[in-house]
Write a structure and sequence with these properties.
By secondary structure, the protein is mostly helical. It is 60% helix and 6% strand. The protein contains 43 helices and eight strands. The protein has an eight-stranded parallel barrel with strand order 1-2-3-4-5-6-7-8, surrounded by ten helices. β4, α18 and β5 form a beta-alpha-beta unit. The longest helix is centred in the N-terminal third of the chain and has 33 residues. The protein is globular and about 90 Å long. The protein starts with 12 loop residues before the first helix and ends with a helix.
């Protein structure tokens, strides 16, 4: 076999690609042979003997980074096509095919979807990389010149950064929606010249929770939320004013003045409000009457529509497009979602329902008492001082909402999302506080279903809540029942396929509960919260699959057949999600695809899919997959493998930092439940195997494979499930999982210098070998790889019985690219580990020993480890020349000049290796299509 020993270089990506193909051939002879680890070894040998330097590695990483960005752009292009605005206008014309004005008006006054921009930590790409990807996808030019000039230097991600990016995405969405509305008015004017001015189109509605989601966060104060709402108001008023500058200059000027006032108010709430005097001044200025103050747009909307009745077509269209935007967004960039945890609401209500702490809030007695409280409550006035002194997080949220509705925007309703909500008492508690502060007619309380318990018992929970007379009265008053489902945590807890099926069942149960409780005359607002990766609920095969995965045609039909109006809502999460609105062209394409395929749409006359008729097969299939996923989640082997590197494989991708352990011993016992869904999924990507998407499908078919295959072949839902599995399997590599375990193999390090041609690193290899003799990670990864392999072989047998509907032409190239990236990172980790044990001994400090520092690096707490090394070997310290003393000194002499050489030979290369490994992290995530 040819190789580096034979003189072949590994200096280009093509070299690495070719070499990996050569090494793969050997797996036919030796099944356990690992090409990924072997290529990593060959790169490591060249790195250690000087044939290759980190400059070469960096050039290779940059080239692979470029390929990942191009893949990301191509994927976005493929999913959204066509992207050219002219093509999307033609598509819109075709979608707006109604011949009757009333049918046309009903269709286009109903949003195809509510779109929520969340602040999830998926800001994987730098601003420069994001612009390069969106430019490439928008123009169809995926060349290196277009994509690869972007700097990989990461942005500093703060809450303000995330909020700013969300506003940019929403602004592009608004611009695209305005363009669609202009087209709809022109179509209506041509078909119904006497009636078109009565159209009130709303193709999509926008919302955000960035700056309002306080679940698990202590860095968002109530004044932050008030400031953001004022900034959003100022931004939106400025855009309204710009829209009307020529068509309605007086109204435009009024809106501009109101925007300027909102800007001034936002600045006041951005200041230090810690003193009562400062807060009182800001609050009094905001709440005072002012000639430029606007808290409702109802009068302006009526005025614009009245003016349009007497205007020519061009002017009328401008006025009506502005009125449509105002009706959709109100005095902000869109609706807003606050979010609290159920425990925070329970703590708040306990003070009123059970001050002595003797009552179980899940009990019937607590529910009876809650009903009594709700019946007795009378609205209370509140002000900013009450908000400032409130200690309860949940009550503070309701007080903040009350101030927003009273003094900033009285039109737009506010969502109150309640996480981990599993008791009816919690929902009634939310209604109680909403009613207490007089905002129950403007607040939609929405329980979130994403945990194992919530998904299992959610149907009974919905039956109980909707049976409450107080809730039914509230739902009729609001005109909707609101719930939220979470594909991200659900996918982590039970696996993505079982999660989707369980959520689908829950959605169906909601339709039944609404029918049973006389609520078919109100809407069902279902916020299906999913991320951008397969493991978090984004189906990658097509835009149709993406739209249908969170709410299947089967679930939609349950509502449509019951006569219940659906209000579907979906999330575009963090930086990865904002890419869909990353340019005017992409935003228009995204909304046009939604217009073509409304997320509430389904054929009510379609026959029941075989998957739902053969529940004797499909239910067992679901339970078996869920069982395998549960075994992994509870397995110490799986938990140890996923947490073996801590969170050190990942970049920081959000303002809410993923939790890191401060106790070294805790790293070895870190629970998967301590890691949020996004980093959990991201680690699976980085290790090379999306367990929570693939695992269990093969095992679930075992023993009944032919019949299961027949079901999946004949069922549209089954085919969709398997398209997801195939997409994940195309990127999966058990060899890569195993390769990471071998980094901790003491025998490998002891044997590596055995043949004598790496004597210069022999001592370092032996130090590593000795240190790792007690390390458990090699065995853990081998056991996990074995379990995955058994299940994967069964999946392979099942896939052989199913047609591949859309084989990817570049599948093997993508797999080799992933393998090359993983081999490069393994080589970097080896170089880093060798440098770590070569560092000269240093003294213990702050109760941290030399071995503790080694463990920091082996768990990829690299920044912590580097801080300890820099403390032990400083290069910056006082100089004798800084002093003006009279007596001379010969000391320090040339032998006491510090530790620059140690930095140059050890500390700096370690830091550079880790930085390059994090660039590989980004490249790998791009090949998977998203972070986490």
């Amino acid at each position: 076999m040819s190789g580096p020993e034979a003189g072949l270089p590994l200096n280009t990506v093509d070299d690495l690609d070719r070499r990996l193909q050569e090494l793969h051939v050997l797996t036919a002879q030796t099944p356990l042979y690992n090409p990924v680890f072997q290529l990593g070894l060959e790169l490591s040998r060249q790195l250690e003997n000087g044939e290759m330097g980190l400059d070469t590695i960096e050039a290779l990483v940059a080239e692979m980074e470029c390929e990942g960005l191009r893949a990301r752009a191509a994927r976005l292009d493929r999913m959204l096509a066509p992207i050219a605005p002219a093509e999307n206008e033609k598509r819109l014309d075709a979608a707006a095919s109604e011949e009757d004005f009333n049918a046309f008006a009903v269709r286009w006054q109903r949003p195809s979807a509510h779109v929520v921009f969340t602040g999830h930590p998926t800001f994987l790409l730098s601003t420069a990389q994001t612009e390069a990807v969106t430019q490439a996808a928008s123009t169809g030019d995926h060349s290196e010149a277009t994509v690869c000039a972007a700097s990989p230097t990461r942005d500093t991600i703060t809450l303000d950064y995330e909020h700013g990016k969300a506003m940019e995405a929403i602004a592009r969405g608004q611009k695209a929606r305005d363009r669609i509305n202009e087209r709809l008015f022109d179509i209506a004017a041509a078909r119904w010249p006497k009636r078109w001015k009565g159209l009130n189109p709303m193709p999509a509605r926008f919302a955000t929770w960035v700056g309002y989601d306080m679940d698990g966060r202590t860095d968002i104060s109530w004044s932050t939320s008030i400031r953001y709402r004022l900034e959003e108001k100022a931004q939106r008023l400025a855009s309204y004013a710009e829209m009307l500058a020529h068509a309605a200059p007086d109204t435009s000027a009024k809106l501009a003045r109101a925007g300027a006032l909102a800007t001034e108010m936002a600045a006041r709430f951005a200041a230090d409000l810690s003193s009562p005097e400062a807060l009182s001044d800001a609050a009094n200025t905001l709440t005072a009457e002012h000639p430029d103050k606007l808290i409702s747009l109802e009068g302006i909307i009526s005025h614009l529509e009245s003016e349009a009745r007497h205007a020519d077509q061009d002017q009328a269209r401008t006025l009506l497009v502005a009125a449509a935007a105002m009706r959709a967004d109100g005095l902000g960039m869109g609706w807003i979602h606050f979010r609290v945890n159920a425990s925070q609401l329970q703590n708040a209500i306990r003070l009123r329902i059970d001050p002595e702490g003797k009552l179980n809030l899940a009990s019937q007695a607590a529910l009876v008492r809650m009903r009594e409280l709700l019946a007795e409550v009378t609205p209370l006035k509140s002000n900013f001082a009450a908000l400032a002194i409130e200690n309860s997080t949940a009550v503070r949220q309701f007080l903040a909402m009350a101030q927003i509705l009273a003094h900033i925007d009285a039109d737009a309703p506010i969502r109150m999302l309640v996480a981990e909500c599993e008791e009816p008492t919690t929902i009634l508690a939310a209604l109680y506080f909403a009613r207490m502060f007089g905002i129950d007619e403007k607040v939609d309380v929405s329980p979130l279903f994403e945990t194992e318990t919530a998904l299992e018992h959610g149907g009974r929970f919905l039956d109980a809540v909707l049976a409450e007379p107080a809730y039914r009265d509230y739902a009729h008053k609001r005109g909707r029942v609101s719930i939220q489902t979470g594909f991200s945590d659900a996918g982590r807890f039970v696996g993505q396929v079982p999660a989707a099926l369980a959520i689908e069942r829950l959605q169906g149960r909601l339709s039944e509960a609404m029918v049973a409780n006389g609520l078919t005359d109100v809407s069902a607002l279902i916020f299906n919260t999913h991320g951008e990766s397969m493991g978090r609920g984004a189906h990658p095969s097509s835009i149709e699959d993406r739209f249908q995965w969170p709410m299947s045609p089967w679930a939609r039909r349950r509502f449509l057949r019951a006569g219940i109006r659906l209000e579907p809502e979906v999330s575009f999460q963090g930086g990865d999600g904002y890419l869909w609105f990353g340019s005017d062209e992409l935003a228009l394409a995204t909304l046009t695809r939604m217009a073509e395929m409304p997320l509430w749409g389904a054929d009510v006359d379609a026959p029941t899919d075989l998957f739902y008729r053969r529940t004797d097969l499909s239910l067992d299939f679901y339970r078996a997959i869920r069982g395998v996923q549960h075994e992994h989640l509870e397995s110490s082997t799986y938990s140890r493998a996923i947490t073996a590197f801590g969170l050190g494989l990942l970049n920081d991708t959000g303002s809410r930092k993923s939790r890191r352990q401060s106790d070294l011993a805790a790293d070895r016992s870190m629970s998967l439940r301590q890691i949020r869904a996004i980093p959990h999924n991201a680690i699976l990507q980085q290790l090379g195997y999306p367990v929570n998407v693939i695992a269990g499908i093969g095992t679930a078919s075992d023993g009944n494979r032919e019949e299961i295959a027949g079901l999946l072949r004949e069922s549209e839902r089954g085919q969709q499930l398997m398209r997801l599995a195939r997409a994940a399997n195309a990127l999966a590599s058990i060899k890569t999982v195993a390769a990471y375990g071998e980094l901790f193999n003491s025998a490998y390090w002891a044997s590596r210098p055995y043949r004598g041609d790496e004597k210069h690193i022999a001592d370092a290899c032996l130090k590593l070998a000795e240190y790792l003799t007690k390390d458990d990670r090699t065995g853990v990864y081998r056991r996990l790889a074995s379990r995955l392999r058994v299940d994967a072989m069964k999946l392979h047998f099942l896939l052989d019985l199913l047609p591949d509907e859309a084989p990817l032409p570049d599948r093997e190239h993508t797999r080799r690219s992933l393998g090359v990236l993983q081999s490069l990172r393994i080589a970097l980790f080896k170089h880093m580990f060798l440098r770590v044990v070569m560092v000269p001994p240093f003294s213990r400090a702050n109760d941290i020993s030399h071995d503790d520092v080694l463990e920091m690096f082996f768990t990829l707490r690299v920044e912590d480890g580097l801080a300890q090394l820099r403390r032990a070997f400083p290069t910056s310290f006082p100089s004798i020349d800084d002093f003006t003393v009279d007596k001379p000194s010969d000391y320090p002499d040339s032998s006491a000049t510090g530790y620059a050489q140690i930095h140059r030979e050890f500390i700096d290369p370690i830091a550079r290796c880790y930085a390059l490994s994090l660039r590989i992290t980004t490249a790998l995530a791009n090949e998977f299509g998203a972070h986490g």
